[in-house]
Every structure is written in C-alpha cells, then in structure tokens.
Amino acid sequence: MSCLKCLKYTMCVVNFVFFMCGAVIFSLAIYLKTAFDFSSLVPSFPAVNVVSALFILAIFITCVSFLGFLGALKENRCLLISFFILLFLVMLCELALATVLLMYEEKIEKTIGKELYASLENAVQARTENKSSIEWDTVQNKLQCCGVKNMTEWKPNIPRSCCKSVDCKIYWEEGCYSKMKRWFEENLLSTGIGVIIVCSIEVLGMCFSLTLFCHISKSGLGYK
Fold first, then answer.
1. Which of 54, 106, 196, 199 qualifies as a cystine partner to 29, CB 3.0-4.6 A?
2. How far is CA 120 from CA 3, 107, 140, 177, 219, in A?
3. Containing domain of residue 209, as a range?
4. Which pLDDT score, from 0 to 100, does residue 104 have?
5. Per-residue pLDDT tens for 140-160?
6. Helices 2-35 and 188-219 sit at what angle, rounded to 10 degrees?
C-alpha cells in the first residue's frame, strides 16, 4: 500500500506540472494574440490559426491533467484509463501535426506568402480610398517592418507605421514576411525544447496512470 500511495501522489504531482504546462501554453496564446495576431493577414486560414490551435491545446491539456489528478487522488480506475486514452490521443495528434508541418513546410510558406500579398493589396486599395489598415499598421509597428518584402509595395501611399524616424523620412527596409520568418526561426529552439518537455511529461503521465491502474486492480479496490 505504501508503494500505491507513493505512485498515487507522484502522479498527482506530475499532473499538476502538466496542468501548469497547459497554463503556460494558454499564456503564450494570449501573448501571441495581443502582440502578433496574424489571423487577419492570412484570412484563408482562420480554422488552423496558430493562436486558436494553442488555445484549444491549452484547454484540452488542462482538462486532461485535471482528469488524471482526480483519478489518482480518488483511485478511480475509470478516470485513470480515460486519462491514459486521452493522453495517448493527444500524443498521436501532436505527432501527426509535426509530420504534416515537416512534409509541407515549403508549401505552407508559399501559401502564407501568397496570402500576405493578397492582404497587402486589399490594404493598399483601402489607403487609396483614405481608409486605414489597422491590422497592417499593428504588425508593422510591432515587428518594425514595411510591406511583405519592402516599402515599395505600398506604392505612393506609404503608411506612418513604416516610418523609422519621427519625421518619416526614413522607412523600415526589411519586409514583414522575412521578419516573421526570422522571429519563428529564432524561437524554434525554445519551442522545440518546450515540446520535448511536454511530451516527456505526457509519457510519464501515461506510465504512471497505467501502473496505478494495475496496482488498484490487483489490490481489489475496484471502482470508487
């Protein structure tokens, strides 16, 4: 029974850490939503928007971790096996998503570039009609860039968000597409480390839940 208690509280701790990981992902999604919301710039991809996916993932992780925590605390076999199955499905989805991103990386980059050009054309048309483009102004101010490749794409109506100096005589030379791409590349290592940590916690959670399930079954505690 001492081994069972040790396993029980260890799983509670693991699920608490797992819950905190979900909270961190949720915070990251909020940060990206407020600081770098690219959904309006790529309108053809609202359903697979990175920020939306992070929100869904964070909510799912927190719910699953709570299920595992409650199952371990109450020593409930039904909750434990449900936790194991859900966690296994999450890992399969993560593996499938990583495979798709690796296989279609070049195609995805081209599609995003095409979408950015289409969005910029709409913004240029809006400026000719004396309307502002809030989305592009926000992105250009945040990333300190201008246009998709450079400022010439705005033609004569270059917005003030492209200005590098106060008098607006100097403009940002780098385009937003390359700036976005470099931002993702610079954060690729930290993202990869985070994914590895989350996957390790998931594997630990699966191992602990299955082991605890077997211990409870052998002890004859049944469904509580």
1. 54
2. 62, 20, 12, 11, 65
3. 2-106+191-219
4. 81
5. 888 888 888 888 888 777 888
6. 150
Asked, for residue 167, whether it belongs to a domain, the answer is no
115-154 core/surface letters (b: 16 or more CB in 10 A; e: else): bbeebbeebbeebeeeeebebbebbbeebebbbbbbbebb
Give yes or no for a contact between 120 and 147, defined as CB atoms under 8 angstroms apart. Answer: yes
Residue 71, in any domain of the structure: yes
Average pLDDT over residues 161-179: 84
Rounded CA gap, 142 and 64, in Å? 35
Quote the pTM value: 0.65
Within-domain flag for 205:
yes
* Residues of the chain above pLDDT 70, percent: 86
- The residue type of 175 is G
Q: Which residues contact 179 (CB under 8 A, 6 or more apart)?
A: 143, 144, 145
| Helix, strand or coil, per DSSP, at residue 218 | helix
For residue 28, the Cα-to-chain-centroid distance in whole angstroms is: 7
Give the per-residue SS3 of 113-142: HHHHHHHHHHHHHHHHCCCCCHHHHHHHHH
Q: What percent of the chain has pLDDT over 90?
A: 0
- Which tens digit of pLDDT belongs to each residue from 6-28? 878 888 887 888 788 788 888 88
Domain total of the chain: 1
Q: Is residue 123 part of a domain?
A: no
